[in-house]
Amino acid sequence: MPPRLHLLEFEQFLPAALEEVFPFYADAHNLETITPPWLKFKVLTPAPIDMRPGARIDYRLRIRGIPIGWQSEITAWDPPHRFVDEQRRGPYRAWIHEHTFTREGAGTRVRDSVQYAAPGGELVRRLFVEPDVRQIFAFRQEFLARRFPAR
Questions:
Q1: For the structural domain made of 6-147, what CATH number should be given?
Q2: pTM across the whole model
Q3: Which of the ends of the chain has fewer CB neighbours closer than 10 A, N or C?
Q4: Residue range 137-147: average pLDDT?
C-alpha cells in the first residue's frame, strides 16, 4: 500500500525576471545557500549538474542532529517554467517537490508544491515534520527576498 501523501504549498513573488530567477533555482548547489544552517546541508554531487529528467543528486544533512543521506531525482524538467524533484533515498517515505515559475509583470511568481509522507506516523508528522518543513521554507523565502530585492 502506498504511503498517504500530505500537501504543503508555498508561494512567493520575486521582483526579478524569470530569466534571472529560474537559473538560480536550476543550480542545485544553490540549495546550500537557501537551506537553514541548522540542517548543515551539503550537495555531494560535483558541479556542474546536468539538470534533466533522470538526473540524480546526492546530499548530506542533519535532521535534529541525526546525519542523513538524501538522493533526489529530477523527474520533470521544463525550463524556465517548471521542474520536479523526487526523493529516491532519504528521510521521508515519499517526497515529491514541484517548482513552478510564472512571469508576473517584471517579476516572477515562484510556487513550491510538496507532497510528502513522513516516517513515524501522523503524530510525528504533525509535531515535527510539518513544522520543520514550514520553517525551512520560511527561511528560504526570507533568503530569496534578500537575494532578489526590489529595485
A1: 3.30.530.20
A2: 0.94
A3: N
A4: 97
